[in-house]
Amino acid sequence: MKSAVGAILAVALAAASYAITLPSGAVYIDPLLYNVVGANYTKWRNSSIVGFNPTNTAPPFIQVFDPSFLDIIGPSATIRAIASNPGFDFAHEAPIYVPDLNVVVFSNTGGGALGYSGWYNNSAVSMINMTEVDAALASTTGNVNIQVQTLHLPDTVQMVNGGTGPYKGDLLFVTSGRALLPPSIVRVNPRPPYNATVLLDNFLGRQFNSFNDVKILPGTDIIFFTDPAYGWFNGFRPEPMLPSQVYRFDPSTGQVRVVADQFAQPNGIAFTPDGKNVYITDTGVFEGFLGANSTRPTTIYKFDVDPRTQSFTNRRVFAFSDSGAPDGIQLDTMGNVYSGCGDGIHVWNTEGTLIGKFYLNSTTPQLTFTKSGLVILKETAMYVINIQAHGMTLST
Ligand SMILES: *[C@@H]1O[C@H](CO)[C@@H](O)[C@H](O)[C@H]1NC(C)=O
Ligand SMILES: *[C@@H]1O[C@H](CO)[C@@H](O)[C@H](O)[C@H]1NC(C)=O
Ligand SMILES: *[C@@H]1O[C@H](CO)[C@@H](O)[C@H](O)[C@H]1NC(C)=O
Ligand SMILES: *[C@@H]1O[C@H](CO)[C@@H](O)[C@H](O)[C@H]1NC(C)=O
Ligand SMILES: *[C@@H]1O[C@H](CO)[C@@H](O)[C@H](O)[C@H]1NC(C)=O
Ligand SMILES: *[C@@H]1O[C@H](CO)[C@@H](O)[C@H](O)[C@H]1NC(C)=O
Ligand SMILES: *[C@@H]1O[C@H](CO)[C@@H](O)[C@H](O)[C@H]1NC(C)=O
Fold first, then answer.
1. Distance CA 112, CA 115 (A)
2. Residue 12: pLDDT above 80?
3. How far apart are CA 163 and CA 299, in angstroms?
4. Residue 172's domain is classified under what CATH number?
5. Does any domain span residue 35?
6. Domain, as residue range, for 85
């Protein structure tokens, strides 16, 4: 995009950047400069897969759309790779930070290319030691490549796709199931021998579709999870036999019920720290072998959590992502919303204004906060960013 327009934008950008002081490696993108871009930009972004990088800055870098994002990233945020393996989509789903062990546990993709899993093969669950990451990062200014450890879990754990916790000291996973093996909610011991206990694998005798993500309602032990059709779309589960919807499960009574429906494909879930609201991401734009259709949702919906029934009420659009689709979703302690999209992690404030992106120029499905910063799963790589904001508490 080297052009007259580009040159004018660059000058305007330089002028605008006097107003705010950025960490090195961050770029201020004043929305006013891009409200009118002409026909060339339309060609450039004719697909939601292509990211929005109007300054042509080499990724990874931080895009600041609103000065309030500086309070989140702090003065010295840098994006650094901590593990990579170009031949294996090892870092895709279900990141759980375990503070006691200072590790992140996560899984690889179920189905897709480079996932090496499908109808006949389970996906892999791995662990990265953040103490080793911190030591390696302290010894250099660049990227590091820490060996991740594959965990040998019981066969009852098939296609881990979502995770949260620690839940009473355990990893809490939702699985997509595989072939005729059912999707399930499962507690896994984060320490050897990594034994597991399945809490739920059917709805009054009917198999679910393919669980995708899970969270605990703050202040309770109640488990909420999403059940889209990606197991079928990605070729490792039979055709769905239930709507793609969101459920509530009370492990103390065994009761399961639907709390929200009318989605294309409900994916990520995150409650606000006070438990009064919940966000659900809808990745309906992507339907596996049926292809992508950019007229379908890449949308985050916000709901009230009914104080008596815990059903999700008053659905409204919170945000629509301009790139890829919002997959995993996490909140910081101030209620800002972070979601993994097609070009990086997008961050919205509580009003739904896009205030910044951690721009990696590729799909970043998932993220989790750790003591070392925000850890990002980018399929064939993992990154950490030492931002100032802290994640809300997810453990029970
Ligand atoms: C648009 O792109 C064409 C072809 O790449 C180029 O010749 C032209 O200068 C561009 N126009 C503007 C306004 O940048
Ligand atoms: C999108 O733009 C690219 C680059 O100009 C072009 O190669 C591609 O054919 C366009 N795709 C569509 C669907 O218009
Ligand atoms: C399943 O695993 C086998 C043995 O490890 C491997 O040869 C095969 O390529 C895998 N299948 C897929 C779809 O990845
Ligand atoms: C992580 O690495 C540190 C430093 O090598 C080690 O002391 C610790 O036991 C490791 N933790 C786990 C859970 O393996
Ligand atoms: C793992 O095994 C221990 C010892 O039997 C048991 O106390 C614990 O509840 C088990 N954890 C899970 C998640 O199954
Ligand atoms: C995309 O989805 C819309 C709405 O569901 C549908 O009308 C349209 O035919 C689809 N387009 C393609 C190319 O599949
Ligand atoms: C972003 O990724 C696309 C597709 O992988 C690549 O063609 C493009 O050069 C990348 N852009 C930058 C600025 O690195």
1. 5
2. no
3. 21
4. 2.120.10.30
5. no
6. 69-385
7, pLDDT greater than 80: no
Asked if residue 296 has its Cβ within 6 Å of ligand 6, the reply is yes
Tell whether pTM > 0.85.
yes
- Please check whether residue 33 lies inside any domain of the structure: no
Alpha helices by DSSP H, listed for 209-274, are 230-233
Specify if 63 maps to a domain: no
45 in a structural domain: no
Rounded to the nearest angstrom, the distance between the alpha carbon of 160 and the centre of ligand 4 is 24
pLDDT band of residue 135 (cuts 50, 70, 90) is very high
| 363 contacts 313 by C-beta, under 8 angstroms | no
CA of 137 to the centre of ligand 4 (A): 15
The residue whose CA has the least distance to atom 13 of ligand 2 is 46
Establish whether residue 46 lines the binding site of ligand 1, counting it when its CB lies within 6 angstroms of any ligand atom: no
Instruction: Name the residue with higher pLDDT: 359 or 291.
Output: 359
Tell me, using a 6 A CB cutoff, whether residue 45 lines ligand 6. Answer: no
- How many structural domains comprise the chain? 1
Summarize pLDDT for 174-193 with one digit per residue, the tens.
999 999 999 999 999 999 99
What pLDDT digit, counting tens, does each position of 79-124 carry? Answer: 999 999 999 999 999 999 999 999 999 999 888 789 999 999 999 9
Closest-CA residue, ligand 7 atom 10, reads 361
Q: Which long-range CB contacts under 8 A does 18-24 form with residues at least 24 apart?
A: 19/67, 20/64, 20/67, 20/70, 21/70, 22/62, 22/64, 22/70, 23/62, 23/73, 23/74, 23/75, 23/76, 23/77, 23/78, 24/78
